[in-house]
Amino acid sequence: MPGIWAVIVAAGRGRRFGSPFPKQYTLLGQESILSLTLNKFSRHRLIDGILVVVHPEDIELFHQSCPDFSASVRLATGGDTRQESVFNGLKALEQDPPSSVLIHDAARPFIKADVITRLIEKAASGEASIAATPVVDSLKFSTGMIIEKNVNRDGLWQAQTPQAFPYEMILSAHRQASDRNDFTDDAAVAEYAGHPISLVESGRENIKITTPDDLILAKNMIKQTDTNGYLMESRTGLGYDVHSFEEGDHVTLCGVDVPHSRKLKGHSDADVGLHALTDALLGALCEGDIGSHFPPSDQQWKGARSDQFLIFARDRVKARGGKIIHVDVTLVCERPKIGPHREAMTEKMAEILSIPPSRVSIKATTSERLGFTGREEGIAAQAVATIQLPANEE
């Protein structure tokens, strides 16, 4: 078992959380808290393996809540305390030991990739280190809800996880501390064994979800962060396209073939709705327009279905760590009537973009018999796309 392993501590019962089942299996967005945490380590380029310490009664719950990881992580069963659970996890790696381990709380799903990297570098050099954030609030001491004294916050840090160690160092430290059960984290265990611990500054976003209020905060955070825990920013793009009519028996609009007395003229299938939306997404990305990626002079696009252009734009959003939040297309024409086909168009665009239909808006209007659309010489479309991209991507 070479390299670096993450030991994720998920054996707690979460009694302060007020849930009928352990908090780490609660949904946060579309995934469980534990699954989101596992994602952070499974996607990190320096992590070679993951071991999850679960409660003996939660093994089936783990497989139900983290189906993407059922076959890719190892499991160990926890003990009566966090300290004992970690020790069980470390011993489970003993037959083929890694060089370093990162020990992390299951209920901290917002750890950033760069913090993991810095901790790994410390462990690789033989150091023990922990993620921590400096205390910024004023501190008061009280035993009965009356302030008894102020506490100087200078030099105070709030300990977090991951906590990283050379494997043999932390395993030996846990053996030495096995006659006690009052250590609240692994840094305290290592200190008890005489090892100095260094700090790796993390952010305040690396919260441990402990109470229902924490879950509310986490739900808001997940809407605003990418998979590495970085804040997202919103971008909006505008697209416009127009195609004239020619002889034919249908038009293709927003991915749906609609019967009509004529068809739209174009190098591809002339889907004016998808063309406008593709340009809107590319505009939000600041990556040119549809013509710069699929030039009409290129014969390979002659007669092509326009959904592949939209798929390209969708995949560009994903490649930059972004997500599509909402799209809105307005079709301008006298005929054909859009209303009877609106639902099919909505479903088709949602399918192409891999987003829920509730995030797709399709509208239609006429130009009151004015202009080329009013004279039924063609169809125009406007589109607006809202996406989120990592704010730090540059």
UniProtKB/TrEMBL annotation:
Q: List the residue ranges of the region (2-C-methyl-D-erythritol 2,4-cyclodiphosphate synthase).
A: 235-394
Keyword Lyase attached: yes
- According to UniProt, residues marked as the site described as Positions MEP for the nucleophilic attack are 153, 208
Q: Per the database record, which ranges form the 2-C-methyl-D-erythritol 2,4-cyclodiphosphate synthase domain? A: 235-387
Keywords noted in UniProt: Isoprene biosynthesis, Lyase, Metal-binding, Multifunctional enzyme, Nucleotidyltransferase, Transferase
Its function?
Answer: Bifunctional enzyme that catalyzes the formation of 4-diphosphocytidyl-2-C-methyl-D-erythritol from CTP and 2-C-methyl-D-erythritol 4-phosphate (MEP) (IspD), and catalyzes the conversion of 4-diphosphocytidyl-2-C-methyl-D-erythritol 2-phosphate (CDP-ME2P) to 2-C-methyl-D-erythritol 2,4-cyclodiphosphate (ME-CPP) with a corresponding release of cytidine 5-monophosphate (CMP) (IspF).
Name assigned to this protein: Bifunctional enzyme IspD/IspF
Protein's gene:
ispDF
